[in-house]
């Protein structure tokens, strides 16, 4: 039984590594994908902000050869900006697929539109950075859900890097994520230095944490304002980042005492039932921040001897809160509880709104760690409605 379990983990790690499905250039020149003028937004070109209310910045290569412009899994030739709406299901041959209504926008026009939307609200911006195994359609769906679910009073931006959207593409995703570090940190620096941006709420999922954490540190060091305190509310959902590396680097950098004193905080959503992070741990050899797995068996034994669950968390860091969603985990992987579990969704909504407590949060033996427990008032099929996964007539 134990051997079979080890074999299953090894197989999962092999699949996650992506070594059996390397990305290929393809049979089409990348220049041909972007040859159509629609891939190069013209200054002053009209974009219907009412029909396309959400913002995106992307380093993905677009395909402008047909009427239906799409963003591919390949690295783009440059950064592009635009507007989008929630994806819709369309028929493609005999199958159905998601398609995201979108339009590119000249970068200067895009920043002006973002300012106009920000000025109309409270100066708050929400920036969403996706993780592994995502397409532009799936990340746009998640970004639109976050906007509906939270009712965020300000513009929502999706930053889309070239993930492969395939379960066997992890190694390629990891490579592309690291390749995109400069693009993302430069974008975040530009956003943080806009005087009209009063607060940036950053939401990252999975592998996206490895883009976000070093980028914030870079902006803190390089910002012309020498402040960057508008990067205040940082949410790491199921972060696929080395736990010990995070512990070592974060306290003296992103969560330095001076920044915490000015209001910066990090909320980390974790789950012991996260199978994606279990596979990542098997692949990388060390536990991930998003999983309370006890790497040290002696620590696990000590917890059990005290009558506590064998769940191990990062060390206490001022400004950091850990929310354990193990007991309310959803789906076969448990990797997106903040978008799938009713209890986790409600907690996430409050964190975005900077509320500190929820009735479902239960204290633990660690002051900075909370467990979420099931809500008996929520029916088994109530997750989708509470997480607002399906648009209503009032929320297209």
TrEMBL record:
Pfam families attached to this UniProt entry: DUF900 (PF05990)
Transmembrane regions listed in the UniProt entry: none
Signal peptide (UniProt feature, chain positions): none
Stored InterPro entries: AB_hydrolase_fold, DUF900_hydrolase
Name of the protein in its database record: Alpha/beta hydrolase
Organism this protein belongs to: Sphingopyxis witflariensis
């Amino acid at each position: 039984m134990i051997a079979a379990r080890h074999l299953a983990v090894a197989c999962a790690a092999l699949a996650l590594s992506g070594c059996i499905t390397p990305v290929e250039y393809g049979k089409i020149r990348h220049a041909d994908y972007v040859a159509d003028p629609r891939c190069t937004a013209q200054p002053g070109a009209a974009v219907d902000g009412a029909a396309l209310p959400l913002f995106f910045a992307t380093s993905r290569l677009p395909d402008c050869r047909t009427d239906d412009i799409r963003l591919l899994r390949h690295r783009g030739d440059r950064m592009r900006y635009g507007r989008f709406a929630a994806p819709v299901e369309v028929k493609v041959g005999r199958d159905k697929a998601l398609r995201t209504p979108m339009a590119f926008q000249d970068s200067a026009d895009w920043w002006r539109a973002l300012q106009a939307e920000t000025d109309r609200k409270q100066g708050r911006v929400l920036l969403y950075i996706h993780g592994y195994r995502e397409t532009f359609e799936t990340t746009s769906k998640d970004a639109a859900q976050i906007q509906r679910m939270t009712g965020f009073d300000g513009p929502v931006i999706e930053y889309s890097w070239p993930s492969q959207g395939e379960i066997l593409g992890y190694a390629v995703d990891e490579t592309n994520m690291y390749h995109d570090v400069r693009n993302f940190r430069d974008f975040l620096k530009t956003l943080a230095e806009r005087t009209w941006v009063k607060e940036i709420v950053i939401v990252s999922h999975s592998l996206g944490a490895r883009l976000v954490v070093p980028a914030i540190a870079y902006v803190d060091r390089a910002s012309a304002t020498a402040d960057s305190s508008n990067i205040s509310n940082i949410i790491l959902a199921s972060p696929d980042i080395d736990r010990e590396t995070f512990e070592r680097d974060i306290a003296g950098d992103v969560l330095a005492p001076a920044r915490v004193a000015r209001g910066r905080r990090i909320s980390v959503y974790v789950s012991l039932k996260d199978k994606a992070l279990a596979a990542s741990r098997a692949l990388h050899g060390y536990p991930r921040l998003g999983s309370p797995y006890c790497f040290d068996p002696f620590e696990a034994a000590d917890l059990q001897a005290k009558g506590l669950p064998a769940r191990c968390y990062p060390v206490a860091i001022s400004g950091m809160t850990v929310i354990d969603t193990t007991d309310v985990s959803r789906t076969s992987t448990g990797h997106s509880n903040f978008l799938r579990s009713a209890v986790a969704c409600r907690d996430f909504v409050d964190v975005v709104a900077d509320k500190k407590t929820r009735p479902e949060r239960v204290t633990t033996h660690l002051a900075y760690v909370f467990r979420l427990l099931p809500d008996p008032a929520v029916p088994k099929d109530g997750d989708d409605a509470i997480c607002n996964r399906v648009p209503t007539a009032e929320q297209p």
